[in-house]
Specification:
Number of helices: 7
CATH architecture of the largest domain: Roll
Structural class: alpha/beta
Helix content: 25-40%
Distance between the termini: 23 Å
Largest sheet: 4 strands, mixed
Strand order of the largest sheet: 3-2-1-4
Shape: elongated
Number of strands: 11
Strand content: 25-35%
CATH topology of the largest domain: Urease, subunit C, domain 1
CATH superfamily of the largest domain: Urease, subunit C, domain 1
Number of domains: 2
């Protein structure tokens, strides 16, 4: 089934998705007229190719991401350093659940690709299961590990025949995205599937 994604601030770069691939990129009105059978998803803000986060090992393996039900004992923020490693040593099964929660946070920040060498099966499986692309890690890393690294690394533009992998941010333009950060993400698409939706 064809799906046409359009964001209100970037109607000139609507994306027509066919399965896991981009079928076309262009002005919304032209694509809608050429494919009236396509389901339309309208979003606020801008549609972009999505972000690469270079901190996969640090975020997925070096931190423990508590389950909301553990808030009384662990709080709600990621746990780092030796305390995180003690949690993993005490119960190795926590690694998989923590990595899956970290991946969900990445998706909620418009991340469609990660970089860095993952050593544990739990993190590798969490990345592979959702369909995150794996890219090359930059030689210079932007600041400390974060779900909102600075500067943001936007992937190359979408092209017909390429993977349907992109994100939508509720901002008026890219300058605002840089200023306000990727927590403004309202939708993330991987392999043509909507894997995160904020509203």
């Amino acid at each position: 089934m064809l799906t046409l994604h359009v964001a209100e601030a970037t109607p000139g770069t609507a994306v027509l998705v066919d399965g896991a691939l981009v079928a076309a990129v262009g002005p919304y009105e032209e694509l809608a007229a050429a494919h009236p059978e396509a389901r339309v998803r309208e979003w606020p803000g801008i549609l972009t190719p999505g972000l690469l986060n270079p901190f996969a090992p640090e975020l997925l393996e070096g931190m423990y991401h508590p389950d909301p039900r553990e808030a009384a004992g662990f709080g709600t923020e990621p746990i780092t350093g030796e305390r995180a490693q003690r949690i993993f040593r005490a119960d190795p099964s926590r690694r998989g659940a923590s990595a899956r929660r970290a991946v969900q946070r990445l998706l909620a920040h418009g991340t469609v690709a990660v970089a860095g060498e993952l050593r544990g099966r739990a993190a590798v499986d969490a990345v592979r299961r959702v369909g995150l692309a794996v890219g090359r890690r930059p030689e210079r890393l932007p600041g400390p590990p974060s779900f909102s690294p600075e500067p943001l690394v936007l992937l190359p533009r979408l092209v017909p025949g390429g993977p349907a992998r992109f994100a939508v941010f509720d901002v008026p333009d890219r300058a605002a995205l840089v200023r306000l950060g990727p927590s403004t993400c309202v939708a993330t698409v991987l392999g043509g599937r909507l894997v995160h939706r904020a509203r």
